[in-house]
Write the structure tokens for this entry.
Amino acid sequence: MAESESGQDKTEDPTEKRKKDSREKGEIARSKELNTVAVTLAGAGGLLAFGAGLAETLMELMRINFSLSREVLIDERSMGIFLMASGKMALLATQPVLLVLLLAAIIGPISLGGWLFAGGTLAPKFSRMNPLAGIKRMFSMHALVELLKALAKFFVILIVAVVVLASDRDDLLSIANEPIEQAIIHSVQVVGWSALWMAAGLLLIAAVDAPFQLWQSLKKLKMTKQEVRDEYKDSEGKPEVKQRIRQLQREMSQRRMMAAVPEADVIITNPTHYAVALKYDPEKGAAPLLLAKGTDFLALKIREIGQEYNIQLLESPALARSIYYSTELEQEIPAGLYLAVAQVLAYVYQIRQYRAGKGKPPEPLKDLPIPPDLRRDS
């Protein structure tokens, strides 16, 4: 089993980043055999489809150029005129076959690996000029595989050619007895069918080579566990850096939260383990808003700020825990706690009125109504 330079086995599937980097370098699965089959089949098919018209045009071209009059032969300008006309006829005659071959040459490569243009592959690599590296490639496993494929293609084409020629023996012999025009068209058809059958024989080689190229490409992209971890660190950031960032984010969030505590109408406590700060503004919302919440040390800081700004502190362990676990910062309290919080706010309002000399002292709050689904015992 092949091992990486670090001594670890490449057992992990390639990541998306590894695949993307590989494509940018032009390192994708390509099958030369598939391309060869596509072009050969297209050429044979084009020859069968357009071969008769091509043969007739070429025969007409030969008749025109081999039956010149005396006036044309002694005219110096005639050679250029006939050359241009002959080239135009030949190009128009071969154009359909050439277009079919062009399409096959484009579709064949992109059928395996897709369309790709990597500018980096055009850059010169002086490492390829190293003779030692060249000798190493000549005796590598890849060179052995290419040699076996070449031998397989040779024997496949040889066998198919022998079978095709044997089956077309009568047609080949009959061509000698046909008129010249018919014999040329018949020859084109025989050549086309022979090429088509030989190209079809190469389908077996391509059917083996294409999956092999895909497997080999995937094998090259395999990664060790360490490579996966290193790539994750590079893309996502090192754990200690991410932890530091999260810590800074928490500190900034806590500072913003503490800055909002002086705006609260009441702070409800546990009395020591939990503290939540609420604000009610009927013009902005239908329910009280949670400005700050915390446990232990944060709860202590919230109480200290509340005492500093003369905010009413109310001791209600069950309600403090319920609000802490059910409501996020800067969010309205759930509907199930409306009644309990309304009683708290009414109590705070009465205390303010009493301190201002406008009423009697309020009676202590009794058990507040907290729904069972929002109650937290600890």
Q: What stands out?
A: Residues 246 and 252 are 10 Å apart (CA to CA). Strands lie at 266-269, 274-279, 289-295, 312-315.
